[in-house]
Amino acid sequence: MFNKLRLVWLVAQRELRDQFRDWRVLIPMSILTLCFPFLMNEFAKQTVDFLNQYQANLILDRLVPFSIMIIGFFPITVSLVVALESFVGEKERGTIEPLLTAPFDDWQLYFGKLLVGAATPLIASYISIGLYLILIIRQGLDMPSASVMLQLFLLTTAHAVLMVSAAIVISVQSTSVKAANLLASFIVIPVAILMQGEAVMLFWGNERVLWLGIAGVMIIALLLIRVGIAHFEREYLLGREIDTLNFKWMAQTFWKNFIGGAISVREWYGRVVGSSFRRALPAMGLMILVAAVSVWMSYDWTMTNVSETVANASPEDLTKLQENIAELPDLSSLRGHLSAPFLFLNNTRSMAVIFLAGMFSFSVLGVLFYMINVALIGGVYAFLQLLGVAPLPIFIAGVLPHGMFELPALLIGSAVVLYIGAGLVTPQNGKSMGEVVIELMADWAKIFVGLVVPLLAIAALIEAYVTPTILLRVIGN
Fold first, then answer.
1. d(CA 160, CA 217)
2. Which residue, 114, 133, 342, 397, is the most exposed by fewest CB within 10 angstroms?
3. Tell me: the pLDDT tens digits for 232-282?
4. CA neighbours within 13 Å on the CB side: how many for 417?
5. What are phi and psi of 236, to 5 degrees?
6. Alpha-carbon distance 373 to 407, whole Å?
7. Quick one: the chain helix, strand, coil %, rounded to 5?
8. Is 1 helix (H, G, I), strand (E, B) or coil?
């Protein structure tokens, strides 16, 4: 094992020598690393002075964790060009063939490039953060707590690994440095949007949720590494000379996999959809387990936290809550206003969001949205129980009639998203990454059109025209 890791270090040493010879990367990175902490410190001061003129009472200490996160992010963006050129750059310079013919395994080449690509920006980020912390100490500001500092360093590390992993995947799949650099926006922009949510958590001091965010980023980063290794082929790097968008081929490949050679609807359902459904069965079993855990956690959290809130509430607060509940619209008035098309489109849109979120996060965000949807059941059940209302009859009357169709549709659609994520990180010899993505999208489309849409349509009809009547009879409203 040690000899195999030693070969990884040999690749990393070679990459490190090439990187330190490139002044176009070293000079901007050095300037940004050494100067940006001072710029960020001055920006924070000016922001506080401006807002405090309007009695915003913003304290500079509140900006310290946010500033640390931003300072750690910018050196990574500059050094991202190294990871983007890791493979395709060597191909353009004509140095890729000796490297690929060397007695290295694919994972050794990949991890050697990844090690240097991630270590260099991290060292720059840590140095920049260290300079900023020295400025904070000299100004007499309060340092963030040890747990927050640990979170900030882990966030910086997670962002670096995530961005570098994505950049190396792009470098492997691109045929020119220009194409790889143009695709860099698909790395920087999503991570910048992600950091906006993390900044909100920092300002609100929600450390528990931030730990979950760190775990999510690391999971996606590890999945990206797995994707890169799974679709790393030496022949692919040497054989392709130019990238082309062949929309005709893409459409034909998608349609071929969607139809599956079926000549009738019955054959399509029995053979094509059935085959895709069976491939997704392990994911469905896992999603059932996830649903059970989500419902229980939501129920337990509501019973623990909401019950304490109710117990500590004043009589005026309880009276106000009762008044707000009394102002809710009557079920009898809602019965005629529920529209089956609206419910169907709303549920279909939710499934599309789960699919898109899963595609861009290797199923992580898709599974998260699924957990949130299912967790509402446990939360509402516990809330009704705290209000002194028997929840079981209400759930049987208000959820079961349409839920017996809607919940399986949600389960099947989300399980296919998880199956797609697993398919992307699974090596498939003889197929390009684009072909794998198209085939997986065709699998999702088959199950979505063949199973999920009909189930959602039936659920919408029952929810609009049957469930309100049954619920009214149960609650006697």
1. 10
2. 342
3. 777 666 655 555 667 788 888 899 989 988 888 889 998 899 998 999 899
4. 29
5. -65, -40
6. 10
7. 85, 0, 15
8. coil
